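ok trying again, last paste got cut off:
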Amino acid sequence: MQKGRGRTSRMRRRKLFRSSESRGVNESYKSEFIELKKWLKDRKFEDTKLMPACFPGTGRGLMSKTSLKEGQVIISLPESCLLTTDTVLGSYLGVYITRWKPPPSPLLALCTFLVSERHVGDQSPWKPYLEILPKAYTCPVCLELEVVNLLPRPLKAKAEEQRARVQEFFTSSRDFFSSLQPLFTDAVDNVFSYSALLWAWCTVNTRAVYLRHRQRECLSAEPDTYALAPYLDLLNHSPNVQVKAAFNEETRCYEIQAASNYRKYEEVFICYGPHDNQRLLLEYGFVSTHNPHACVYVSADILVKYLPSEDKQMKKKISILKDHGFIENLTFGWDGPSWRLLTALKLLCLEAKELLPK
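nice, full thing came through this time. structure:
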């Protein structure tokens, strides 16, 4: 038999093909990642376990350079690398934020800093990080209205709420932006446009890790829990992994600890939380295939549509559901109808006499 034509050779080739399909392509040679690594090294961070790569299905992410074991710390990012409200208040924006009344929110402080640093371009000390951030996002708030109208009704309603919230965030911040005019030669209306603020809002919303800060009088009472973590935020989401992520008070580093083993050249994931695909699309701009938390949202009008039309108590039943918060988040998942959906259905199916108080 000719060499390489046997069953063993065929199996070996299939295994290599499957491996190459899932293996990422190293991107650490790209100029933006070279600059980012230099920038991180100046801030006392050097990664020996992971490298940037592009993967089929998930896009840009981090790949293991060597095998990783469960419990191993895979990233330990120094506090000096984190972008937080401490960073903002210690910058040229600090004096403007401190004297503005009412106090700006932590989210506004971070978004203002991102827009400002992006505007100054090469002069920004954060340029290596800004260069690897997405230029645009795919959250529903960024989509054209024609696309949003194609979304399932419950998701469309959430997307419209999100759009209105961001629009209000922009409108209510314009006076504060005007106070920053002394910092810019360009008009602040051009610097802090709606599209610029939307980009910054999406950057914080999709990429920030949780890090609680003490409350300060110069910022509003809203929870100050955001931290942008350069390089660490290249890790993609998988609903099937568990990791430990927290700020280590002793080392003053934000650490990611593997909760499972990884082979060499395998993509390393973190889990953003047990989110269904509606939540993932709304908050992060993507959906997850084979998501164990996937579910279908059932709207109240769909429920009513398939119940007896002659029910004269239907309006009263819907009113009861609204009063008790059971008109939204009714879902049907892999395990069947949720408890909230079952409860709503039980009430909608009650006879008139069963609705009367005893």
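cool. Residues 15-21 have pLDDT under 50 and may be disordered. The chain has 15 helices and 13 strands.
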